[in-house]
Design brief:
By secondary structure, the chain is an alpha+beta fold. Helices cover 42% and strands 16% of the residues. The strands form four sheets. It has a five-stranded mixed beta sheet. A hairpin with a 6-residue loop joins β8 and β9. The chain starts with 6 loop residues before the first strand and ends in a 9-residue tail after the last helix. This is PucR family transcriptional regulator. InterPro entries: CdaR-like_regulators, PucR_C-HTH_dom, PucR_C-HTH_sf, PucR_dom.
Length: 528
């Protein structure tokens, strides 16, 4: 997938099941598309925003030369990615005049076979875009994790710069806060960065100067970003490669800049809290990140004295949302109350929950997992948060490597906490039912029960989330709608669609039990 979210048209043409045939393919730049749009208007251009694969059967198309010229030139001006022409029932073949106009304007033209519904082409475009998005997320996540791991190296700033250059496929230079030339280099940068780069770097070093800039050097595009914050001396990181940075790559650069800024202050262990929190919970937790986690997550309990004077080796994950309808509480206050800097604030209104990693402080949580014991630890912490306006749920104590799993557990538990309107802590002792169920067999059974709802994609994920929230709320339409941020009629429609798609009656408690079993064993359904 390209940086703008588009996919090469060739990938669509390679789908043999669609039966698409390239009629015109511009030779200068391979065409790409972002979505499919069906239109039989004589002039669809005013309704396009760019990047579309415009699909038409030519129902209202005039083959007069002037009309075809206006039609094709309008698509090009609107930024359409390609034109798909469906043969029959109006035309038995793509009009030769249309082929000529598309070739003249450099607009890709594809013949859609009679047996291929336009909706199938649209679904294929959507699937390819989604595949590209997932791959981009994976690539960016790996780059973020590699950068954070670099901080633990013997020469962390050198390792961060080298990792950045490898992740973005570029050369890199780190300039000092004063104009004394490169301090660090990676991937063989040019020996002379030129006068333009030097002038821009000087501007970026100024206390009130810009934070980033772009330049050209030889055949490379050059990207500059200030490192550090005034009034400290500001260094400048300089990258170069033949192609521009897309949005995801700029995010990777931002992570590297933040780490280099902290390292420049001598804070090698102080990775930005929200960033490290997201990397630990959304990625594959890496044991070698433990030295970074412990100092930021608070202090653990000494086994001998019970006092909080030891570096923790186990941690809990918190998910919390606003309790009640009052003003949104401050995420920073919640993090301070927990004694952790590893907090991802979510959204101010609580639609996306606050997530945090906190040091484990075992306590006497009740057997049903509810908060409320008088002992120090997660239950007391959750009660304190509740008094501050946060309704929270906390996972079991885990190692750093297990934090992604604990994140899913906390997300699932938060749904129960919202349904019960009270804080919850995960059970520490083994559940006999869980112990009796093989996880692999349970996952296979869950997918069989959910059928199309177990598929990947936004629609299936939305229906699973709705089903889980509705079951957790015991079928209460209003409370489910409030949890999902949706209209109650939307919830009714989704539940009705689930019943139709699965052929079940959710008024039957047996079916509700089976669906609850299924949705709690699909990993992504517990996300908050």
């Amino acid at each position: 997938m390209h940086g703008d979210g588009s996919v090469p048209l060739k990938r669509l043409l390679d789908r043999r099941d669609l039966g698409l045939r390239a009629v015109v393919l511009p030779g200068d730049e391979p065409p790409s598309v972002r979505w499919a749009a069906v239109s039989e208007l004589r002039d669809p251009a005013p309704y396009l925003i760019g990047g579309e694969l415009v699909l038409t059967a030519g129902v209202n198309m005039s083959t007069a030369p002037d009309d075809l010229e206006a039609y094709v030139s309008g698509l090009v001006r609107a930024g359409a990615g390609a034109l798909g022409f469906g043969v029959t029932p109006v035309f038995d073949e793509v009009p030769a005049e249309l082929v000529e106009r598309c070739a003249a304007h450099g607009l890709a033209l594809v013949e859609v076979a009679r047996s291929t519904p336009f909706v199938a082409v649209g679904r294929a475009v959507g699937a390819l875009v989604e595949e590209g998005r997932v791959e981009e997320v994976r690539r960016v996540s790996e780059a973020h994790r590699a950068l954070v791991r670099s901080v633990t190296a013997a020469a962390p700033d050198e390792r961060v710069l080298a990792t950045l250059a490898g992740a973005l496929g570029c050369w890199a230079v780190l300039l000092d806060g004063q104009d004394v030339g490169p301090r660090l280099t990676a991937a063989s940068p040019p020996r002379d960065l030129g006068a333009e780069v030097a002038e821009l770097a000087e501007r970026l070093r100024r206390p009130r100067g810009p934070r980033s800039a772009k330049a050209a050097l030889g055949g490379d595009q050059v990207f500059l970003h200030a490192v550090g914050e005034p009034p400290r001396e500001q260094g400048v990181v300089v990258l170069g490669r033949p192609t521009r940075l897309d949005m995801a790559e700029r995010a990777v650069l931002g992570t590297a800049v933040a780490l280099l800024g902290l390292l420049s202050r001598g804070a090698s262990a102080a990775v930005p809290g929200p960033l490290l929190c997201r990397l630990l919970l959304d990625g594959q937790g890496a044991p070698d990140l433990a030295p970074l986690v412990a100092p930021l997550a608070g202090r653990g309990l000494s086994p001998e004295s019970g006092s909080a004077d030891t570096a923790p080796d186990t941690f809990r994950v918190l998910h919390a949302v606003r309790a009640g309808r009052g003003p949104a509480p401050a995420a920073a206050d919640a993090a301070a109350a927990l004694g952790t800097e590893l907090a991802d604030p979510g959204t101010p209104g609580g639609d996306v929950p606050l997530r945090a990693v906190v040091a484990d402080r075992a306590d006497g949580a009740s057997s049903d997992g509810s908060a409320g014991s008088d002992g120090e630890g997660p239950t007391e912490a959750l009660d304190a948060l509740y008094r501050r306006g946060w309704l929270g749920a906390m996972s079991r104590a885990v190692t750093v490597a297990e934090l992604p799993r604990a994140d899913g557990e906390a997300a699932a538990l938060l749904i129960r906490a919202r349904a019960a309107a009270r804080p919850l802590v995960a059970r520490e002792r083994e559940d006999p039912l869980e112990a009796a169920i093989d996880p692999a067999a349970a996952g296979k059974a869950a997918r069989a029960l959910l059928g199309p709802l177990a598929e990947e994609g936004e629609s299936s994920a939305m229906l699973r989330e709705t089903l889980r929230a509705w079951l957790a709320r015991n079928g209460n339409w209003d409370r489910t709608a409030a949890d999902l941020g949706a209209h109650r009629n939307s919830v009714r429609y989704r539940i009705g669609r689930i019943e139709r798609d699965l052929g079940i009656d959710l008024s039957d408690p047996e079916q509700r039990m089976r669906m609850w079993f299924a949705v709690t064993r699909i990993p992504d359904t517990g996300r908050g």
